[in-house]
Specification:
alpha/beta; two-stranded parallel sheet; about 50% helix; about 15% strand; globular; binds glyceraldehyde-3-phosphate; binds zinc ion
Length: about 300
């Protein structure tokens, strides 16, 4: 095998194993356009850390399922860099199959709003079908309630009743055969206005993360991480989180960069002369999060192995 292809040939599973063994986390950032993809890729390359980009059903409908897959693949191959693509929050099997066939590395199969038994039944069927199509693909399942919408919310939903229970997590993982689990541990999709203003932060239930990890012994993804307290994120990673999803902070940085470009270059019409301001704004946000996620060094036993 050509040496220059060594890194990109590493599988996503291998990256997660190494990440967990190092006691750090991989950053996952949602994208809706080439500008955001460029910023996430450059930030990860500057720090030399693996990265995952995510595209939800709405995001990939906008970009094109095959088109976003081709873009990420082209970066991975041309730069020999570990960048991977996740079909985030996929609510139907047909949409999951479409993403798998298009070459996505990971599918978050999310039917978490269904009753637990039905969630187990549908997720198990999705795992079987997707692995049948692409044995290398990773499939994530989700239990509990973390709200929806990577947007700015007026008020927080009451998520206390939807927190993930460690015994249920173990049952879900055993019965479905998922590769990764998205639990509800105080996290919530989107940010409150007070979080955008920097007055409040999300707080996490670290003991619950530790207990779920001990029971379910599986890679865990923290969704809804925008606006989370930095120390809670560090503690969550030390307690068993291997991947952290950020979207609302990315969207905010995109909007702020665009506002700034429109204000400072009012007569400019050339996109490639304006959009670097958006890329810079995005890179600042993504780099800060990647630095935090990769700063822990507590060695954890690779309990899932
Ligand atoms: O799947 C996407 C994430 O969970 C994003 O959540 O918008 O709160 O960062 P967030
Ligand atoms: Zn999410």
């Amino acid at each position: 095998m050509n040496q220059s292809r060594k890194v990109y040939m590493q599988t996503l599973r291998k990256i997660l194993e190494q990440t967990e063994a190092n006691g750090v986390a991989v950053g996952h950032f949602n994208i809706s356009d080439l500008v955001t993809l460029k910023a996430v890729f450059e930030a990860a390359r500057d720090l030399n850390v693996p990265v995952i980009v995510g595209a939800s059903e709405g995001e990939r409908q906008f970009m094109g399922v095959r088109q976003v897959s081709a873009l990420v693949k082209s970066l991975r191959e041309e730069y020999d860099f570990p960048i991977f693509l996740n079909a985030d929050h996929t609510h139907s099997l047909s949409s999951a199959i479409e993403a798998a066939k298009a070459g996505f590395d990971w599918i978050v199969f999310d039917v978490s709003t269904l009753p637990f038994e039905e969630n187990v039944r549908q997720t198990k069927a999705a795992v079987e079908t997707l692995k049948g199509l692409r044995p290398d693909i990773l499939v994530e399942g989700e239990i509990g309630d973390i709200g929806s919408g990577s947007e700015i919310h007026d008020a927080a939903p009451d998520l206390r009743k939807g927190l993930t229970n460690p015994a249920e997590a173990k049952q879900f993982v055993t019965e479905t055969g998922v590769d990764t689990l998205a639990p509800a541990v105080g996290n919530m999709h989107g940010m409150l206005k007070s979080m955008v203003a920097g007055e409040t932060r999300k707080r996490l239930d670290i003991e619950r993360i530790r207990a779920i990890k001990a029971e379910a012994r599986i890679f865990m993804t923290l969704h809804g991480a925008s606006g989370t307290d930095d120390n809670d994120l560090r503690a969550a990673i030390a307690a068993g989180i291997t991947v952290v999803h950020i979207n609302t902070e990315v969207r905010l940085a995109w909007r702020r960069g665009l506002d700034s470009a429109l204000t400072t270059q009012p007569d400019e019409i050339v996109p490639y002369k304006m959009l670097p301001q958006v890329v810079d704004s995005l890179k600042r946000t993504v780099s800060a999060r990647l630095e935090l996620f990769s700063s822990g060094r507590r060695a954890r036993p690779a309990s899932h192995l």
